[in-house]
């Protein structure tokens, strides 16, 4: 039988226990959704330490969910079957535009310099001879997921502006395809299934390492790609890092406990934080909905 988390029913008990709630509230499990971007087994492995910590913290069974695409996590948050997720900015925008009351924005990953921006990175095999968007005319470009910020939304705006064309297959690019996620894009470029693709990185540190954090760093760490075999062909303007969100209907004390844990994770277990954040970071810090209003407006303008 699942254990239950029962919080104190009086203000005195709440203060004594360090709880943030004075109402009798309970949950029977806690469910964490992990966005696509790498294969399900790797997603589970990267976040297992977080799952175990939160299970111990809350005293209830904590589960990881790895839907096949970004929308699976979004729909889980909207439907109440997922309690927490680290969304991309575009994914949060879709969640908010569908139901503004569904989730609370709580934290954001920070880079080593304290910023919370990252980039969409266009890349190709070094031996392809492709070094720029100009070289991609008539070729196949791969994108991760329609709900990915760096894997589609931002490139779908900035790349047409750079090429003076559109993203429609057969216009500037010979074909435009969705690979299913960041790791899938990297593998597809490596295998020569597509001529180039886009993924995400903080844009800090050395290219040879896959930058400090992001999908390229994770793929480099795991041996999926040798960064010396690929080249950067395009880089977006800075993008606001996506937020960690919690389902708004969760008890307040549960949300406060989880936020406090994640804020302290980097100091408590640097390797766990590295695994969760896909590389070297300065940890997670508080952020609010206001940081994503521009992305929300962009998504709204695109009718999505």
TrEMBL record:
The keyword Transmembrane helix does not apply. InterPro entries: PhnD, Phosphnate-bd. Residues 1-24 form the signal peptide. GO terms for cellular component: ATP-binding cassette (ABC) transporter complex. It comes from the Bacteria. Gene3D superfamilies: Periplasmic binding protein-like II. Belongs to the phosphate/phosphite/phosphonate binding protein family. This is Phosphonate ABC transporter substrate-binding protein. It comes from Roseitalea porphyridii. The lineage of its organism: Bacteria, Pseudomonadati, Pseudomonadota, Alphaproteobacteria, Hyphomicrobiales. The gene is phnD.
């Amino acid at each position: 039988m699942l254990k239950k988390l029962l919080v104190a029913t009086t203000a005195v008990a709440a203060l004594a226990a360090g709880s943030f709630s004075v109402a009798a509230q309970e949950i029977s499990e806690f469910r964490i959704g992990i966005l696509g971007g790498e294969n399900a087994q790797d997603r589970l492995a990267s976040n297992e330490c977080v799952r175990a910590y939160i299970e111990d913290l809350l005293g209830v069974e904590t589960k990881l969910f790895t839907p096949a695409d970004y929308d699976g996590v979004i729909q889980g948050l909207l439907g109440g079957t997922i309690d927490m997720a680290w969304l991309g900015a575009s994914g949060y925008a879709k969640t908010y535009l569908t139901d503004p009351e569904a989730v609370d924005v709580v934290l954001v990953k920070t880079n080593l310099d304290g910023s919370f921006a990252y980039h969409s990175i266009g890349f190709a095999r070094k031996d392809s001879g492709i070094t720029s968007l100009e070289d991609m005319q008539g070729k196949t470009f791969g994108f991760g997921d329609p709900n990915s910020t760096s894997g589609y939304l931002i490139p779908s705006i900035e790349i047409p502006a750079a090429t003076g064309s559109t993203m429609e297959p057969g216009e500037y690019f010979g074909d435009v395809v969705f690979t299913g996620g960041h790791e899938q894009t990297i593998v597809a470029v490596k295998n020569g299934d597509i001529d180039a693709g886009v993924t995400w990185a903080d844009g800090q540190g050395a290219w040879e390492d896959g930058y400090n954090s992001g999908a390229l760093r994770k793929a480099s760490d795991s041996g999926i790609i040798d960064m010396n075999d690929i080249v950067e062909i395009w880089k977006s303007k800075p993008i606001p890092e996506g937020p960690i969100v919690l389902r708004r209907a969760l008890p307040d004390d549960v949300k406060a406990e989880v936020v406090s844990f994640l804020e302290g994770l980097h100091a408590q277990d640097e390797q766990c934080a590295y695994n969760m954040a896909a590389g070297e970071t300065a940890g997670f810090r508080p952020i609010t909905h206001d940081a994503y209003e521009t992305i929300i407006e962009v998504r709204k303008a695109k009718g999505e």
